[in-house]
Queue: 4 jobs
Job 1
Amino acid sequence: MSVPPFCRRRPARSGRLMLSLLWTLLLLATGGVAGYFLARFMPDAPSASPVSAPTGSPRIAALGRLEPAAGIVHVYGPVGDRIARLYPLAPGQSLQQGQPIAELASAEERQKQVALAELELQELQDRFDAAKQAGEAKIRAAEAEWQQAMAARDQDLAAQDARLEYLTQQLQVAEKSLERLEQLRASRVTVPAEEYDKARLAVAQAKAERQAAEALRRKTLLSYQHADKVGQARKAAAEQELREALARFPLQSAKARWDHARDQWERHRMVRAPISGQILHVQANPGQTITQEPLLTMADVSRMIVRTEVYEGDVERLRQALHHGSVLATIQAPALPRSLRGSVSDENVISRMISLNRVFSLDPRMDRDRRVVEVLVPLDPGDTNLAARFVNLQVTVLFELPASSAAELPKASEQ
């Protein structure tokens, strides 16, 4: 059964209006989000000098960071060890080189290793001394025996030399007596045969006795020479035995182990300040296990600089300005209570290498990728204490070019 047209239900006009309104709001929201992300992440059109002063200005603007001239030092400890005691530390506190920072838990164990190495060295030294004394006693005994064997040599040889002298004279007397008798017999003087025979026998006997005395002296001399060689050999053998005995004791390696243990204990029983300077940041806590992270950060803040990144198009202007004298620099940052002053007087502080910037402007419209040259700007001594409170602060540096030469300097836009 069909329904009459006037009885059919028509959609409410208000429902269609509400649906159209919802679709319109959804499209507007989608467009707004897309526009935000495009404005946030799409790169802006590059400019000739992102942080430079306007073309023709007697100033050069650049970004930089406040740093100690000697650099920042991170203090580390032995990885895996534990901090047993942390000395009172706070940012801004001054430390002297070698001043204790933290005591390590491994110090007690390392001290035991030192004591053990020292005990081993002492025991080895005692055994070495005992062996040395025994060997030296053997050497003295061999030397005494040798000296005793050689003590009577001079007296014995002197006595035998005296006897040889006596026997030589006795032989000479006997020979003269025999010669006289022979002369008498030659002159036909009667010489009893018995007397002549006695004279000849006396000569023969004197010769025999003299020859025997000479043989005895040679034998005695050879005996003493042999005893001398034996005594020297025994002494040399005792000395060699002592050297071999002492060589069995590795004293040098034991002492090296002791020195190494002491060095390790001294180096690792506590962490000390590597330089004299001021604490910038403390990360260590008592009881924590040491990792590869630094325990604290410190620096010598007696001299401060600004590590400035000058746009590549402005570097030649800065170099040319230095030919007319020092270039003053004004350092500004919202965090600073006042501006800082510095100056550049030498081209040696200007790097010879162009690199990508590492300091980025807080303005989202500025280029994120720029070619810069690093320039180190020393701060005036009067601003050092203030700058030391803001290490690593990003600042803006304005180089005041000499007014007399500003017209002669090339502009960044002409490079």
Job 2
Amino acid sequence: MPYHLNAFVWLLFFTLTLHACNGSIESRHKPSNLKTPLPEKNFTEYINKTKKLIETATKGKLKAKWIEARLPFEFKPDKKKCGNFIPYKKGVLLIHGLTDSPYILRDIGNEFKKNCYWVRSILLPGHGTIPGDLLNIKYSKWIAATDAGIKSFKKIVDEFYIVGFSTGASLTLHHVLRKNDPKDINGLILISPGIKENTPLGFLAGWIGTLGKYIPRASWLDLLPDKDKVKYESFPANAGAQFHYLTKEMRGLANNEQTIKTPIFMAISSTDATVDPLITKDFFCNHTQNPKNFMIWYTGEANFKAKNTVCLGGTIKTKKISDKTMGILNYSHLSLPVSPTNHYYGKSGEYKNCLAYNTNGKHLKLCQQKINANSKVKYGEKNDKNGGYPVRRLTFNPDFKNMMKDIFSFIYNLKQS
């Protein structure tokens, strides 16, 4: 091994070991060794099985309302508004992101329900229980859950759409590429889609995960308090590795196959710190092709003008962020699928994402204060600069209503000749 590479590996080893020492291994950081049920046609039975899984894994440490929040959910159209059509005509499947639970897509699910869709969400294996369940997970399990969710639903509706957030979008694209643009999927709605991680070092996650077999703390890129009641804060290297392998394989399929013809809606922030937004835009333009494809590109750049552009993939609508009255610098990866009125992640919600300051008491306290146009603390993405003052990671989308209008306009346009 060349000297400079050898030195880099040792430096990485000691850095990760020291970083991991910032937290302590607790029972939730060890696998429960329980099997996540797969989606099935009897969706009520699937939800009940998943509830038993979460109850067993969390060992009474999670209140009933938070267990309910983590569960897969099913919304059926309101009979008074939509008519008593059984089976229902329109269906949408929701697939969450890495470390998330179905809760992250509840607001979008509710909007589809209001528009007379039959809504189902699934729970990906390793999620919704305890962070340790991601230590040994393989992305093939996520693919199996995605396939089962699609198979159990698409044949019982006339129109079928998939909403994927982050890793859920990666899995959706992976499915469509493997199945060669299946005709029984009418459209894809991809929010903050995971085409590639936003780091050139994603390939190292697998090495680090292997190191964790000998030094347990090194298995974790982040050991955090896990105060978020509906997703994990602690993050094992293996989770990052599996995302890397999944997206690398998905991009390989895209390079080897024809461009994706299935209609696609995308939305992403230009400052997304979790996935690479520029690679996402490139994927949209060069690996998808449909005149009705539509992307929203959110940007906080001061000199950027709102405009529509067209590439091979479809139309890109650039939306300039103008939420200064709310104290917002940029939209984050996490924010796009969540309504400002969400009782947990919304503007007045219970949860405040200040994980960047977990070991800095002064900044943590500042970060948790109320934010408005005059406050020095701002909302934004975790890599935003704010003159030395904290930035609370934005957990809701101020443009949520308009984004949903664009989604339903996209679907409406698909039905026009």
Job 3
Amino acid sequence: MRYLLLFLIGWLGVNRPAMSQAPEAENGTLDARTWNFAARPLPLNGTWQWYDYELLSPLDTEQSVGQKVAFPKVWNDVRPYGGGDGFATYTLTVLLPPEPQQYALDLPMFYCSYRLFLNGQLLASNGTPGQTRETTVPQWRPQVAAFTAGGHVKLVLQISNFYHFKGGTKDVVYLGEKNMLEKKVMIARSAVIVQFVLMMLLGAVSIWVFFSRQRKRVALWFAALAFTWGIRAVFSNRYVAIHFFPDFDWTWAVRIEYLTIYLMVIVAILYISKLFKEEVNAFLGVGLIVLNLTFVAFTLFTAPLDFTRWLGVYLSVAAIMLLYMGIVVVRALINDRIGSGFLSVSLLLGVLLFAYDIVTYEGLFAYHDLIFSVGYTVLFILVGFGLLVHLRIMKSKARPAGKLTYSDLYRDDD
């Protein structure tokens, strides 16, 4: 437990946006001539030039006057009325070392379509940015765009959004060496794919165990957790599913991302209710399930522009859920449930990872693909081993007589 806590503290420290040493853009210009790109990529943070409600070509930006705006920042936080719909253009000039070399940009998802020009040439795009809903096609497909340059480059970024509550971007754009960024993204995608395959296997094995060994519903709840998280892994953050299926309907991709959050909470509450029967509050658990089912229905039957608007409300529900699960875990430890310590650590890790998922969505922490994937993979492996111990498929060490065991937590399972 001590080493896990030390790891988590260090992990949170690493994941804070530790970018104070990096040069920042000022009024649309970023001086990167002394930056060591061989050491790490450069976040293109700072103040860019912004042309709100204008989709300007690279040539048009030379003849227009923009305004300074913080980047990255969603439009809801920089516009006076807080709206996230519409369109806008950003420009940034980056001063580079004079010798030409291969660079790349690690481009995240933008709300909800974009075109990026470099020195007047189209470099990358997602969907089709337009000035109306009818002419805009949304797409979320993070990518790495490579180029060769020296001296300086000018970036012109067009963003359009008529489909999501938020507009603009909250994620950092990184500039770095081509090979370094491509390797980083390849590792991140591979980790997500491994995570997805592992979750599917864990879920399938749990269903097989339920039907062939012991018909205890806790195995089904674990299978549901694994399947739901596996699907969410490829429909969030790096959006690996969209990388392989770029024509996948954007509306359903967003629905899947949101639905898996709510379904994970529902299944987690049902799962923890089986683990710690004496510590759970049945009334509160049912209430949280009903609330999440309400969000499920709202997400299924409304447009993304509507259901994404209420994520802030859901975060309050998620906070209550995290507090509830934390209290259940603490009570189980206080009650000295020998055999529950293993699962308590797993649940604690799960609560922290879920909380991390929320705060990274809000832009409060930097997102790190590999740590995120490894964290959830380790979590499900730990819970899976605990399930095997409970089902007596894997034997645990001997214990003193008269002590409450992990299996005792399921004494009246059906």
Job 4
Amino acid sequence: MAELRVTIERVAFGGEGIARTPEGVLFIPNTLPGETVRGRLVEKTASYGRAELVAVETPSPDRILPPCPLAGGTLDPTGRNLRGACPGCVYAHVRPETETALKQAQLIEMLERVGRLSDEARSRVLPPVPGVRPYRYRNKAVFHVSRSGQECRTGYYGFDNKTVLDVPDCLLTAEPLAEQWKELRSRPEWPHTLREGMTITLRWTCRDGVVWWRNRADPRQPWLSEEVAGEVLRVPADAFFQVNPWMLEPLTDVVGSLIREAGPAAVLDLYSGVGLFSLVAFRSGVRRGWGVEVESRAVEAATWNARQLGMEGFCFTASSVERALRSASARFPPETTMAIVDPPRAGLSESVRSALLRYGPRDILYISCACDTLARDLATLTAGGPYLFQRARLLDLFPRTAHFETVVWLRRKDA
């Protein structure tokens, strides 16, 4: 297809640059605002197009050379793009401070366009908290196995979400994980122990070192220990926990400050995992709480953690969030309760949003790793519901990638 020459206006959530052409909006990856680039059209719809980056004619001063050979955004001396194979680090070509600013702009745009945030409320989106480390921060990695004859590849999925890229070293993984991965791959017998479709998971904590397993973790695997603000939480090896330990303190500081400002008598910790945000609430002066989590082993760990940390007024239940919300008002009066929600990337389902609105807690603290589903849910709770936007803050827990964490506080209009 013919090449297009365009100027990038901004970068959308997900990492693609946006340009405007007579035919409509054009998305081009690995670009930056202000750059003049050439792209080759690969997709066209009635309202937008997508192009692959061919070359950057006028590079931004914020462009840097990606340190990973698999990342996109590497240019040859003539400015031509050497297309990367790995879709993970969409900002490997960007200065870290610029990456944080791009993500902040994306959050605000998403909250305004999808979440219907008012101009007045925009001033309550606080300055972002940048990542402590641009690389070597992940405490967990999951690699996939692909076999074809004698060839064996272990790594991440490529752009088609099917082809496995061989990844000798992911620069996002913490140093101990990277060292363990290198050692495993150096074993002469290693390729012969792997099967097509297998996954290999590596997990690290500073107290336990690295543990790893194929496919599923052995349930008899000893629990791991994670340090949080001077306390220790026990975590089953395969249970969810924040992947960036260097950003745990900033995250819990932001959450704790908003809980203290809201001043609830009790919290409902929905999608509670092993009880991280219940602990933050307890350390912020809340003396009653109920954690709800569907994974029974995480609930077992949360119960153990609460007992060890003296959180006598907190309990944890293995249940769906919808079911727990139906009975919450009998134990936790909504007019004095804060609901803390930390859902997976898909956000709150329609049934959970409905159940949360029926229960009607005075405050909601929404912790999200996906600002698109966050904005969708906020539109239901605020513009279309009984809540007012109070604060929001971005924390870059996932530097170099398209993702970031956002903490939002909502309060009932009649509170």
